[in-house]
Amino acid sequence: MANVFDVLKERGFVAQSTDVDELKDYLSKPSACYIGFDPTADSLHVGSLVPIMALANMQRQGHRPVVLVGGGTGLVGDPSGKTEMRQLLTLEQIACNVEALKKQLSRFLDFGDGKALLVNNADWLVDLRYIEFLRDIGRHFSVNRMLAAESYKIRLETGLNFIEFNYMLLQAYDFYHLAGANECYLQMGGDDQWGNIVAGIELIRRKLQKGAHAITFPLLTTASGAKMGKTAAGAVWLSAERTSPFDFYQYWINTDDRDVARFMKLYTFLPTNEIEAVESLEGQDLNICKSVLAFEITQLAHGRDAALSALEAAGSIFGRRTLPADLIPSSSIPREAKDKVDSVPTTLIGLERLEAGIPAFELFAETTLCVTRSAARRLIEQGGAYVNEDRISGIERRVGVDDLRDGGILLKAGKKKVHRVLVK
Asked: What is the DSSP track for 292-338?
């Protein structure tokens, strides 16, 4: 079996690492590795998929992922990559978020029989004695070196408070704790975490006289320069309650042509030799690959049934794309997935409102196809708003019962964003 470091490197996960030979030696046998996740919400978003998939690849190669949920550090707030202080949460809020994140991460990782661990650093950070912590841990940190870290330099321009200044010490202590308690000597994270991870390696060397390792991931943007997981409507969440499986699927269908092969390597488990063939494709062939990408990721995040439903719903609206038989044999698609489009985002509207007629710009804002009514007006004026495939020609257009087709009305913003209105 290939060394997992080579697998991660080949698939595009590695931005920086500590000494490669030592790291590969550590990974030559089943070993533990960890990544921290911030419990500031009850769901992770698409921007978290790179670390999640890195852990999933580690597990598939026989290693033991340790998921650290920052219940303790979440009380402080990580300044890395931020221009202002995060809102501080209560222990009760964080506890609820931690439970939600574990359920979400279980889609990607097998936590059964100790194959992966989920730990909460509140268990060892909350009860720390401050004076003892300063004496035993703080004395190993140079303030000059801390201020040289990129995460601190950026915040010094806008103001870094003392609570946030402690964050590097706390994250380093996490690494030190996991090394001692779980024999975990590899931490992974975004490239903006390099300084914090190296601080933990140094603390382990000083306190335990052992070597530790680091891998950081590239901070991803799309080919157009946009931040991963961000759309005009906001973040793309892994929670079905925050972002429907259909909208999640459509986010990946709309991948820039230049990103398809790269995203397949990062966000699926498809063999890299097959993915490399995608780089030479274009047109309809590349569109089929986008469907494969969207289906694979939606299946991981929401399950096979939701992915099939999203696939069929998209096909009923935008036209079908035939996927390779070895990916989705036609016999395996349940009849209900073919016959229903329940995954299309839907809003129920009272019959009396439709009888009176609803201004189209108002309905587009109400269904969240547009962020505001002003944005909806602009969309209509630019010719990008549709009712049942018919372009809205004027701002005065009202949507009413005459627009009902089979009990519903299909609204489209541009060619790719859709919403269905049903009579309540």
From this structure: HHHHHHHHHHH-HHHHHHHHHHHHHHH---PPPTTTS-GGGS-HHHH
Specify the CATH architecture of the domain 230-339: Orthogonal Bundle (1.10)
Do the beta carbons of residue 346 and residue 421 sit within 8 Å? yes
The token pair at 261 is 């092969």
> CA 341, CA 419: separation in Å to the nearest integer?
11
For residue 352, give the nearest of 401, 298, 285 by alpha carbon: 401
At 205-261, the pLDDT tens digits run 999 999 999 999 999 888 888 888 776 667 899 999 999 999 999 999 999 999 999
**What values do phi and psi take at 10, rounded to 5?**
-65, -35
Q: Could you tell me where in the chain the CATH 1.10.240.10 domains are found?
A: 230-339
Collapsed DSSP state (helix, strand, coil) of residue 167: helix
Distance of CA 167 to the CA centre of its chain: 23
Other Cβ atoms within 10 Å of 385 Cβ, number: 27
Give how far the C-alpha of residue 354 lies from the chain's centroid of Cα atoms, to the nearest Å: 38
pLDDT tens for each residue of 151-188: 666 666 666 656 666 778 889 999 999 999 999 999 99
- Contact partners, residue 100, CB within 8 Å, separation at least 6: 42, 43, 239
Residues 28-39 pLDDT 10s: 999 999 999 988
By three-state DSSP, how is residue 101 classified? helix
Structure tokens, 208: 């335990």
pLDDT tens figures, 329-355: 333 333 333 333 455 778 888 888 888
* Run of H or E including 228: none
Q: Which of 49-63, 65-79, 163-177, 358-372 has the lowest mean pLDDT?
A: 65-79
**Number of helices and strands in the chain (H, E):** 20, 15
Identify which has the larger pLDDT, 154 or 375.
Answer: 375
The CATH number fitting domain 346-423, selected from 3.30.70.100, 3.40.50.300, 3.10.290.10, 3.50.50.60: 3.10.290.10
Q: How far lies 202's CA from each of 129, 182, 195, 206, in Å?
A: 22, 18, 11, 6
CATH level 3 topology of 4-217: Rossmann fold (3.40.50)
Does residue 49 have a pLDDT over 50? Answer: yes
Q: How far separated are the first and last CA of the chain, in Å rounded?
A: 57
